[in-house]
Amino acid sequence: MHKTIVLVGFMGCGKTHLGQYAAKALGMEFADTDSLIEREAGMSISQIFAEQGEAAFRKWETEVLRRSCQERGKILATGGGVVKNPQNVELLHAMDVSVVWLVADAGRIYGRLRQDNTRPLLADTSGEAKRRRIETLLAEREELYKRAAQYAFIEEGFSEEQMGDAFVQWLEREIFEKDGKKS
Question: Model-level pTM?
């Protein structure tokens, strides 16, 4: 069975959508750290941020990441800030996983998140202020994503409709063929 593929990248870059699509196409399991955290905590990510703070959320995130990376044969979507914690990056490098950075530009991300008010770090913004916040956070994290990932899938040039198939083909070519077959 192939090692787990961990997806990192900014919020709204498509980790959950592409992860689910690829897992189904490739016959793999899919998991999302944010969903696992919500289930274990018994509250939404927004509630955790509001009631316990970002530091508490990041502790949950590290523990869920540690457990999830020990499993094989799945595609794991992480939260956009997972790379902010150096302990998480060390964990990703120490585990037998393939880390893929989904690279999307600020304009594409803004287009996806423009109407989304569920993201704690963007909840108090709209319009141009939201676009600027996305650009700022993305710039702050870009180097962190580069350091965490072994691979980068660049979304530029693909329509939303083409993205899923392009990602599956990319995984097959860049990871499975190089690391051996998935099963």
Answer: 0.88
Helix runs in the chain, H state only: 15-26, 33-41, 45-52, 54-69, 86-94, 106-113, 127-148, 160-171, 177-179
- CATH code of the domain made up of 4-175: 3.40.50.300
Half-sphere exposure for 12 (CA within 13 Å, toward CB) = 25
**Residue 31: strand, helix, or coil:** strand
Residue 155: count of CB within 10 angstroms of its CB: 21
In the chain, which residues have pLDDT < 70? Answer: 1, 114-116, 118, 120-122, 126, 179-183
Q: Name every residue whose Cβ is closer than 8 Å to that of residue 80 and which is 6 or more positions away in sequence.
A: 9, 10, 11, 12, 13, 15, 141
**Residue-range domain boundaries for the chain:** 4-175
List, in sequence order, every residue forming a beta bridge with 154; answer none if it has no partner. 103
Which pLDDT belongs to residue 151? 96
